[in-house]
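Can anyone check this?
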Amino acid sequence: MEEPQAQGFSIAEKLPPEVELRQIGLSFTLPEGKNLTRTLTRELRTESETVVSLRVSPEKLELCCSPAILIDAQWPAQNMLLGGASVRFADAQIEVTVAPVDGLAEGILDFTATAQKEISALITAGLEGTAAMTPGYNPFTDRALLATLDAISANFERQPSNGVSDVTTTDLGKVCVEATIALRKAFSHAAEGAGLELPEGASLHVRVAGAGDVAQIARAVGAAECVRAANIVAITLSCEALSVISGGKPVAQLKRIRVDRGGAVTIEQLRLQGSLEDAAGVESLVRVLAEAAKLAGHGVPLEAGVQVAANTADPRAQVVPGLARNQIEAALTEGVQGLVREHATALPGLDLREIFGAPDKAAVA
């Protein structure tokens, strides 16, 4: 894959015309009990498996740790929790989230202000002299983004060593790429009397989950091999505007959908039209619609019907008049797969069609 900056193009200029990129991010997990850095006076340590996320938008760069990472300080200094940090591009303002841990055994002197100042200074040193510290900087329109990233990397490498670490690239697992995009063109799919609709301007969050670790990806040569090394296992789509259409009318909103490797579609969260409650952890939209419709026929309110929705194995079950379960299930699966294919190149450097088992199309040309 040829990098956008090789010919002076920014990320925004290389995106498909039908989408607008609003945020892109990378996340990985760190195992429990790993010291990111250790000195004579403190340890920066994971207390449980921790997801570290780095997200970039036109407005800011943000680092998040979930759960927060423990700063185990030498007593009587109070232990602290590091939640993350951010850099606001409008004015190069840096914010660091550090909170003290309560309890006598955790220490008695509050050093959170000192910790925030030291971490902020480290970030400032890493970004110093690069385009990222120019007020109003936008990484998506930076035509020399690779040069900017190289300069930031060189700045951090020049910083004096601050403790030792027992973290290696093999510890950085479950690599995920995520992005939020806005659609400049509406999407629709109809089949067998049912369909999906996503209006123009809708915001869609895409999360690509992999089973590979950073070490495997780093050893790969070329973009296609990197994608295969990441071992994509699922794509999750989250949206507030994706509607299920039946008889020309919306009957439900699909709020979170997962597409597993091979193309199987699972509805993880939905809202029936007019319902005040979400149904989460649902394996099939049809299962809920069919049961809710059956209960409604006995006078049970729609909201209550969603709560007690149960499995029905009958593919002939009428979800709505004239529409059988197998018809709507097939239509939704085809529609979600079509949505992924239509926006397969919306994430720079990835081709979402890889989820369907097409390694030869793993990277964007």
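Reply from J.R.: I decoded it. The radius of gyration is 24 Å.
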